[in-house]
Write the structure tokens for this entry.
Amino acid sequence: MEARQAASVKGGNFLISAPVPGDTFTPEDFSEEQRLIAQTCREFLDKEVIPHLLDLDKQEPGLMQSLLDKAGELGFLGAAFPEQYGGLGEDFVTATLINEELGGGHSFAVATAAHNGIGSLPILYFGTEEQKQKYIPKLATGEMKGAYALTEPNSGSDALGARTTATLSGDGQHYLLNGQKIWITNAGFADVFTVFAKIDGDKFTAFIVDRDTPGLSFGEEEHKMGIKGSSTRQLFFENCPVPVDNLLGEAGKGHIIAFNILNIGRLKLCAAALGGCKRSVNTTVTYATTREQFKTPIASFGAMQHKLAEMVIRTFATESALYRTAQWIDDKEKELHAEGKQFNEAVLGAAEEYAIECALLKVLGSENLDYIVDEGVQIHGGNGFSDEYNISRAYRDSRINRIFEGTNEINRLLTLDMYLKRAMKGRIDLMTPAMAVQKELMSIPDFSSDDAPFAAEQKLLANFKKAILMCAGAAAQKLMMKLESEQEVLMYLADMILDTFQAECMLLRAMKMHENGNANAALATDATKVWLCDAADRINHAGKNAINAFAEGDEQRMMLMGLKRFTKAENFNTKEARRRICAKLVEEQKYYF
């Protein structure tokens, strides 16, 4: 897909557009170089990380740091950093692929993501040239380890409610930091921290704080449910002198750093979750084909085949949505570069353009992984509850992802908030298609059929979007300014959007695979049809709950009739489709798309 094609794709526009497969990037489009990089990451994980998971969980002194050093030597930590700062200058899709492949590394994946994401990017994107030259080359190689200190005991989702203060010293040379941070990943060994504090108690600002700064102290390692090998400690600041030259960005503009970094972090979390999905699928199918009950491998039982197939389907959904969005960001970044934007402006501008999609990816990636590891434990039976089997670690480690990078509830609410704000600013036209849907509700339904390949699936997908526009438009008209306080309605709408976004990404990928004669095209179509059938029921359920929450009388009856029309799927044998998907999984003994 050329950059000029991607330029016409505005963030959030998938809800009101009808894209074609040829303009959609899929994992089948990876270059040979990208595939080799992915293979190198897998080999590193298999050789250097996976054999040491138990020691990592015990936090063996120096082990995590040594693994990060090795990752740095291979270029994994600074892959997306510009070459002038010691990075490899890889594009966004390649960096996303590296995040995915390392994402199956449990606690190591968390340490890596914290280092080369939130631990390094604030300096890379918002630092002065002097700050970048001082820190980024060492962060790129792993010589220095990075961390990010935002959360406080009384400010989690409400980041701007932070109480840590920064006061300019009498000689004007330092800011004195006082306060506390909690849940700081990599705190046990990080050399540099991006710390948020309020200057004079109100100007929310970011600072670069070195580990050896006087007045900075650390709590003990937290005892966590999962990701036990990840260092997590509290930070305490007591008249901690930070040079004025270490103020990051502009005073009072720390929120710009925090929120922009989160956009990219959400996509990166989805990538890591995808890596976890694939490893859990592979682990589970191996177990299911070797574990026998009643003298038969349990993978041959229909109930197990249903679970295994659904694990594949949800991984396919995550993968399709992730790389479609990653390429959008990559192309937008190149477009902004061509317009003369600097590196940081281009990256941040591209991520902001697709902030809606990044929020959706964070939710779908973490929730699909949670489903997969949960079913993985179930397929393992009693053994899944034993630490002897890695699926138990995967289960524990997965849970934090629905809290990291903004809780999934916050990201659902943000999705609708961003849509409404962009509509009010004219960045996206939701009103015209919403009015068209209202007009359609008053007309005679279209009972015509089209026998062309994928016509029925495309029509159903278009109807999903109409259901969303109908419900969201009516809710906005009826509730107006009260809508933001009706969080249950917003959550229902977000769930409808989540299902639709994944359905579209899967359908476009399946269509493209079909057009290109891919050997797995039929199975991709099976996965997409199963998703569409199940999504129709989920969207109907969420839409019904949303409508009943704000509509009454004739308006309610008309909308419920419209919802039923828009979520009516053609009959499809999902059982047989799942069996076909599972049969291929058993044959390949690994995720195969």
About this structure: The two ends are 20 Å apart (CA to CA).
